[in-house]
Amino acid sequence: MxxxxxxxxxxxxxxTISEASRHMHLSQPALSKKLKxxxxxxxxxxxxxxxxxxxxxLAGQAYLAFAKRAxxxxxxxxxxxxxxxxxxRRRLTVGVSPARCDTLLADVVERFCRTTxxxxxxxxxxxxxxxxxxLLSDDRIDFAAMTPSVPNRQLFVVETICEEHLQLFAPVAMxxxxxxxxxxGSALDPAALEQVxxxxxxxxxxxxxxxxxxxxxxxxxxxVAMHSCSTEMTFEMVRRGLxxxxxxxxxxxxxxDDEVARFDIAGLEKGGGLVLAHRKDxxxxxxxxxxxxxxxxxxxxxxxxxxxx
Length: 309
What we know:
The chain is an alpha/beta fold. It has helices at 3-14, 17-23, 28-42, 58-85, 98-115, 129-137, 175-179, 206-217, 231-239, 286-301; strands spanning 47-48, 55-56, 90-96, 119-125, 143-147, 156-163, 166-171, 197-199, 223-226, 245-248, 260-263, 273-279.
């Protein structure tokens, strides 16, 4: 309990130490002693004792501003902890892919929060297959959704709910040169990538390794202009015309604009799918069922995501 903040607020609100002491169920000498001890710690007076009712000094005004915020925050924490103790507020923790969360889960999260009362939703980023294994094994998440990371299928239930493949994202100004006279929609010749600056996604991301392996297999030497950008930075640099990059087909879903062109590449590894994963002994709560139901409905509404449900 933030007792100092509450006693200063009580003195300010009641105007005298005697009234404040009655409100706080303390004797007047006890409250006076607490106030003096606080002022000694701060090295300044908080109230002008010569005025009636007591008025805060400049230092007192600054402390009051803090006290109001501190007491309000403490009251919120007390209320939330009490609700959790009474099981009045439920919790749902979902593992997600940070690189895909913005475009693929924002609508789902919004719908869930607007239609579900008294439930705190937490999203936990997944870095790798091993990380997802640990999160599920340690019961740190209820389930994982729309993630390319796949846990051990012998230990967990894994369902592919959305397919994705790798595509070339390029500035529209480069589109005609890349197409090389082919009709729109035709897969690009990998050799066309040697003609443009290339932006590599984040180095730790598995996609970086897939791109290099695929290009080596196709005999293409990339002209890397930027290396190991974040996924957001990679897309933004493409949008601004600095070069091209290879990203999952779902990456820019919902934020496509006229400045970015997308191409399939002949012979490029197709990638995989995004999965829903959970423990075999998992018993989904009503909130978990609601979230998954909203996710499946959203996928059916957006065929551009190539849902498998």
